[in-house]
Automatic annotation (TrEMBL):
Pfam family, one: Ubie_methyltran
Gene Ontology cellular-component annotations: extrinsic component of mitochondrial inner membrane
Organism: Saxophila tyrrhenica
GO biological process: methylation
Name the record gives this protein: 2-methoxy-6-polyprenyl-1,4-benzoquinol methylase, mitochondrial
Signal peptide: none
EC number: 2.1.1.201
Protein task: Methyltransferase required for the conversion of 2-polyprenyl-6-methoxy-1,4-benzoquinol (DDMQH2) to 2-polyprenyl-3-methyl-6-methoxy-1,4-benzoquinol (DMQH2).
This protein's encoding gene: COQ5
The family this protein is said to belong to: Belongs to the class I-like SAM-binding methyltransferase superfamily. MenG/UbiE family.
Pathway: Cofactor biosynthesis; ubiquinone biosynthesis
Tree of life domain: Eukaryota
Positions with a binding annotation for S-adenosyl-L-methionine: T131, D157, N187, A188
Amino acid sequence: MSSLSLRASKRFKATPPTFTPWVCHACRQRRTFAFTTPFNQQQPPPPQQQQQDDNPTHFGFETISSSLKASRVGAVFSSVASNYDTMNDLMSLGIHRLWKDHFVRSLNPGIRPTSGKEQEGQRILDIAGGTGDIAQRLLDHATTINGDTKTHVTISDINPAMLSEGRKRFAASPYTTADRVDFLEANAETLPTIESNSIDLYTVAFGIRNFTHKDVALREAFRVLKPGGVFACLEFTPHLNNSLLDAVYKRWSFGAIPLIGQVVAGDRESYQYLVESIERFPRQEEFRDMIKEAGFMVPGGGEGEGWEDLSAGIAAVHKGVKPV
């Protein structure tokens, strides 16, 4: 799939796993954690949302009440926040950095200055931005590649521990002193402080699979984006393109990753959940259709199109454009 730039944006079923993964049954009994977000970040859910919160949902391979998922996921990321980047390096052998670099290059953030004209830059919302590594790449690309010193990124995450890691990353950054980055603790399913039709680019990398109601989050993304704005998602996929490689990958994921979590971070069960959450995420074609159902136009759009597989389908890039 060809790169989709913001300036060109106007041109525009989940299947049960076939592979039974190895699971550490000793780790399936999970602790109960308490996790809250500040009251001023919460809004009373509408009746439809309240009904959704009574429905069962998945937490890895467990089935729990939707109302409990946010706190359970929050506990996981509070636990892994300080080791998150290191663990990503170990789990992916550093390949996640290449995926993220490619993801940002394909978006080409920033607006090249026009001679004699004041440039406003873009407004970017990085959802589940946590440690700020995607935001850093977005600002670096806008500045160094497009010469844009105005583009601004809001890093949003529901988890204060993850945001704390992001603040550390940007503490001594010139982007902070230039007021080009800020932080928002919020649930991606409801963003009351973000105005409708105000965002040029909405990014979410390796986060949306943890959302309780992905369809609600997609509709909220549609609301906040400007007409012609771009939704862009980088996420793991549940199955690789090659069945043999998929079997090897599953053994690695379910056998090695939780063990690495135990040895390096002293937290096996959080990394067990992270692996299980990938297995529960929709296949590429299903997630593409969810993006379309939220109102977006999807590049390509034909059967088997509308996303870009990375590394034989370990991860995929999905994009959608809000119609003008």
